[in-house]
Design brief:
Helix content: 40-55%
Number of helices: 34
Number of strands: 36
Shape: elongated
Strand order of the largest sheet: 28-29-30-31-32-33-34-35
């Protein structure tokens, strides 16, 4: 190009070839008239308008600027021109055929005497790159939605003592061990990057003071290796006190380090890209006919990592990926032979550091006057982002499809502007359809809504469409399956809004939760009804009674409570067995229900104790008539398995409001009246009177002896093994408290000790003695199976309980894993928050916790999902009748399934026969205890039994041990 001997025509021809080889529009514009003085021929190919249209007034450029881009583009161009600064614009133009073209315009200002006189620029079509970026962003949004909630670290902060608890091994994310960071907010705040603390404090305060619906902030935490991890925190107040002050906050942390670093890398890449283009509009180089670089502009050299002078003498193979070199050589050979004048190809360029980029290269031939090839002109642009973006789109689409398939997540999108709707194949499979069977229409979803859920769901969706912001909604509802049944769906819906805030699209995920809902319903039914008789259990009786008394207090009506205890029932159980006794109880339950009105409630408290609650009584005559009817109904003997069994009731009656203001007081006083009925000869009823204190007298007698019994240490521990139902190997032992000196069972002295305040010292002794005995067994060669200790309510609620437990472990020389603690549902549910704090302390120490008598109390599944419980003990009232009672079997199956779902160990209590043991083994209940294996026995007998018991078969202990 600088050949002094070249003719003007030759130079002009080379210049035209150079201009024509550039994949863009080169132009020049006079500032004063704002009209074009030069436009390269590529303008006709790229936008379709004749060149003459560019020189009209106004020019085609002004007329065909996209309406949304015209004002901001002109304003920027004029401002930068007045300032004599070059500028880089991106805008849309309407092509001659009506389609939209994204243009990048790199503009240089020509200045004379300090004033702008002309503009020169290069317009490049960037539509493909722009659309690739849009597809990439759309795919990333879909993937993020489909995988939301994965790799989340859940946390909970107690605002009272600022204790911070995490679910999962969150410290490991930062390289720390589980105990290297104290579980308090202060310890974690110390790890926050100083630059992020103000934003975190502001977000936290804003949420706690009620100015924002949730706590959301991105911040950095210091890792053990000295680096920083970016996290995204989201939290919300989940509990307040009676005055509305926040007590507890729950939330999640998500590792967004990779995302933040990618954004940082993207920003840095964009900065480098812009800086390079400010110095040169396009990469250009000249190569000799034999492939050596003659010269390169700054853009081209920088694109490959070289200084311009370093490029001279480089062969094209040194700058080309080996896999592309032969293809490029073939193109150059054809161009050298005159077969091609210009050629465009995508190839990989090798950089100076050995890496490579993708480049789009336009190669043209510069020929001499005699037609020979003087050099090859190469115009190159970096298209790595586009190529990698297309690859990422393909990868993200594949990952999205795989992730939704593995997670069984259905995905859907509904475009509210066009009406177009999309259901993923997994979404359709949730309803039993193959891809292509169910129409991709909105009405195919609405028509399948359960009638009871339709108004609720459509209302929630409507609210989401109308609401402002970008929050999402999550709710559960039922959809009709292909087979006509209904499936429960957990749906998460996210609105997409335009710049004006209008909702233009909804998208979301579906997860089939039918099995979970059915299991919860079975457990809920089991938790409120007696499995033997089907009557309401104690929990439901108390719930009904409290609601009834609240209504009675407002209306002034009277209520009666009848406590019914069966006389001479124990001999039936002892003589004929529990199966006959169970049939009697079911017969009695049916007769009792026939003796009351439809609005009355009959329930079973346990054993042979029943309760009838009578609302809206007019006077004492109403409960008297019901009690008399019960006495008359039970006069008829029960016919069971060919046996004629006579049984009678003793009935105690308490009235609201004179005999008590709560259901608990009424039941207690009706119980006292029932004992008076027994003392009066049984088979009668008595109304409660304050002087009925027989039980109080008995309690006082036991209470007076308790202190001496503690001082003289008259108590002993018996032990009952817990076995593996498959191998019948011993996997643990339960310590059971006995008082031989008094000759009464724990059912009589433990309640008195609890009420009188003796259980904390007595329970502390039980802990120490159980640990001591466990250590002695280990010293004598018994395996290191854990020992389980029952904890009373007052002992569990004592502040010194945790310290006493630690002292017992230390004194006994045991590891925390050697000790299991058993608590009843009533202990946990009495004060869930306080109980949860104690249970978390035990979990952190390493002591496992068992929930005893599960299914007979009033536990809540919602609490059970987050309480740190390790073991569920299935109550013997369910286990004892598994081979005869389908209801008990269904409840046991539900509890075992619940344990599998929540990762809990299941222990069945009260296994009394090989048939029950075999049935539990087939139901995947791996652990059990009961008379079938061994009765509770003293420690010395337990050790002897363990050493002498037959291997591979159950063996009952001898020695006259009594039942618990």
């Amino acid at each position: 190009m600088n050949d002094p001997n070249a003719s003007p025509r030759s130079v002009q021809g080379s210049f035209e070839k150079l201009v024509n080889s550039i994949d863009g529009i080169i132009w020049e514009l006079d500032v004063a008239s704002f009209s074009f003085t030069y436009v390269s021929p590529q303008a006709e190919r790229i936008l379709g308008y004749p060149l003459s249209a560019w020189f009209e007034t106004p020019s085609v450029w002004l007329r065909q600027l996209h309406p949304e881009d015209r004002d901001p583009t002109l304003a920027t161009c004029l401002a930068e021109t007045r300032a004599c600064r070059g500028h880089d614009l991106q805008y849309r133009m309407i092509a001659a055929d009506g389609h939209t073209v994204w243009m990048r315009d790199i503009i240089t200002v020509v200045v004379e005497n300090g004033e702008p006189v002309a503009l020169r620029g290069l317009m490049v079509d960037i539509t493909d790159a722009h659309e690739t970026e849009e597809r990439l962003r759309a795919s990333e949004r879909r993937l993020e939605l489909a995988l939301e909630g994965a790799e989340l670290y859940f946390w909970e902060l107690d605002l009272h003592d600022m204790r911070l608890e995490y679910a999962g091994d969150f410290p490991a994310l930062l390289g720390y061990g589980p105990d290297e960071i104290e579980a308090c907010a202060e310890a974690w705040e110390a790890l926050v990057h100083p630059d992020d603390r103000p934003a975190m404090t502001a977000a936290w305060r804003c949420h706690l003071e009620g100015h924002s619906p949730a706590f959301e902030v991105d911040f950095r935490l210091h890792t053990k290796t000295g680096t920083w991890k970016w996290l995204q925190a989201r939290g919300k107040i989940v509990e307040r006190d009676a005055e509305g002050r926040p007590l507890r906050v729950s939330g999640t942390d998500r590792d967004i380090t990779a995302q933040m670093e990618a954004q940082r890398a993207e920003r840095e890449s964009e900065a480098r890209f812009r800086a390079t283009f400010e110095q040169a509009a396009v990469g250009m180089a000249h190569f000799s006919p034999d492939g050596f670089c003659l010269r390169a502009n700054r853009k081209f050299a920088q694109m490959l990592g070289y200084a311009p002078e370093e490029m001279i003498g480089k062969h094209f193979r040194e700058l080309t990926h080996p896999d592309d070199a032969d293809r490029v050589a073939g193109v150059l050979e054809r161009m050298g032979r005159g077969e091609l004048d210009a050629f465009q190809l995508d190839k990989r360029y090798l950089l100076k550091d050995g890496s490579y980029i993708w480049g789009q290269s336009t190669i043209s031939t510069a020929r001499g006057d005699r037609g020979g090839t003087r050099f090859f002109n190469v115009v190159a642009s970096d298209i790595t982002e586009r190529i990698e973006g297309e690859q990422r789109v393909r990868e993200l689409q594949g990952r999205l499809q795989l992730a939704t398939s593995l997670a069984q997540v259905g995905y859907w999108e509904h475009d509210l502007v066009t009406g177009r709707i999309f259901y993923s194949p997994e979404w359709k499979r949730h309803l039993g359809f193959e891809d292509g069977e169910l129409p991709d229409r909105y009405d195919s979803w609405e028509s399948r809504l359960h009638p009871d859920d339709k108004d609720f769901v459509l209302s929630r969706v409507g609210q989401l469409v109308q609401a402002a912001g970008t929050h999402h909604d999550q709710f559960e509802y039922r959809l009709r399956h292909k087979d006509g049944s209904y499936r429960w769906i957990l749906s998460r819906t996210v609105p997409h809004r335009d710049e004006a805030g209008r909702t233009v699209k909804l998208s979301g995920t579906h997860i089939d939760i039918t099995e979970r809902k059915e299991a919860e319903e079975r457990i809920r039914q089991a938790s409120q009804h007696d499995p033997l008789t089907g009557l309401p259990n104690r929990a439901l009786i108390y719930e009904f009674g409290e609601r009834l008394l609240a209504a009675a207090s407002r209306s002034g009506v009277r209520v009666a409570v009848l406590f019914v205890d069966l006389d001479r029932f124990k001999p039936i159980n002892d003589t004929y067995g529990h199966d006959v006794g169970d049939d009697v109880l079911k017969e009695i339950a049916g007769r009792l229900c026939a003796c009351v009105r439809g609005e009355d409630l009959v329930g079973r408290l346990g054993g042979d104790e029943f309760l009838a609650v009578l609302p809206h009584i007019q006077g004492d005559g109403d409960p008297m008539r019901v009690a008399s009817k019960i006495l008359s109904s039970l006069e008829e003997p029960c016919q069971v398995d060919g046996l004629t069994l006579e049984i009678s009731p003793s009935i105690g009656v308490a009235l609201y409001p004179q005999d008590g203001g709560t259901i608990d007081e009424l039941i207690k006083n009706a119980d006292t009246a029932m004992f008076h009925a027994k003392e009066a000869g049984r088979n009668n009823f008595q109304f409660f009177r304050p002087e009925l204190n027989a039980r109080v007298t008995e309690a006082l007698r036991i209470e007076n002896r308790l202190k001496r019994g503690l001082d003289d240490m008259e108590f002993v521990l018996f032990y009952q093994p817990i076995v593996n139902t498959e191998s019948e190997s011993v996997v643990g032992a339960e310590a059971l408290l006995r008082w031989p000196a008094m000759g009464i069972g724990p059912d009589r002295f433990v309640p008195v000790a609890e009420t009188a305040g003796f259980m904390p010292p007595l329970g502390a002794w039980v802990l120490r003695e159980a640990c001591r005995q466990k250590r002695a067994w280990q010293a004598n060669g018994l395996p290191a199976f854990p020992v389980a200790v029952n904890v009373s309510p007052t002992q569990f609620r004592q502040k010194s309980f945790y310290a006493n437990l630690c002292e017992a472990l230390e004194t006994g020389g045991l590891a925390p894993a050697d000790l299991h603690i058993e608590v009843t549902e009533s202990i946990v549910m009495k004060n869930v928050e306080e109980a949860a704090a104690t249970l978390h302390s035990l979990r952190n120490l390493g002591v496992k916790v068992a929930l005893d008598d599960f299914g007979t109390g009033y536990s809540s599944l919602s609490y059970l999902r987050w309480l740190p419980i390790d073991i569920l003990k299935v109550d013997q009232s369910f286990v004892r009748n598994l081979d005869r009672d389908p209801a008990s079997l269904a409840i046991a199956d539900a509890i075992i399934a619940l344990g599998d779902t929540l990762g809990l160990e299941i222990i069945a209590e009260g296994i009394e026969s090989s048939e029950i043991a075999e049935l539990l083994k087939t139901r995947r209940c791996r652990h059990g205890q009961g008379f079938h294996y061994c009765r509770p026995i003293p420690a010395r007998d337990f050790e002897s039994w363990y050493r002498t018991r037959p291997r591979g078969g159950a063996a009952a202990a001898s020695g006259g041990a009594t039942a618990p």
